[in-house]
Amino acid sequence: MIWRKSTYSDGGEGDTCVEIAETATHIAIRDSKAPARATVSVSASSFTAFVEGVKRRDR
């Protein structure tokens, strides 16, 4: 899996954020400070709905 961090991650080491990785059907999410620990996996459509909701709230 290829993990990537948000461009909005905290400065410095850039390790105070979550990372995501795309699979064929799901989005995996993990804590960048503890990458060896458990991940959360959600459907791509659920993740998209979550991100859209966050964007609407930020306005």
From TrEMBL:
The protein, known as: DUF397 domain-containing protein
Species: Streptomyces lienomycini
Residues in DUF397 domain copies: 3-55
Pfam families: DUF397
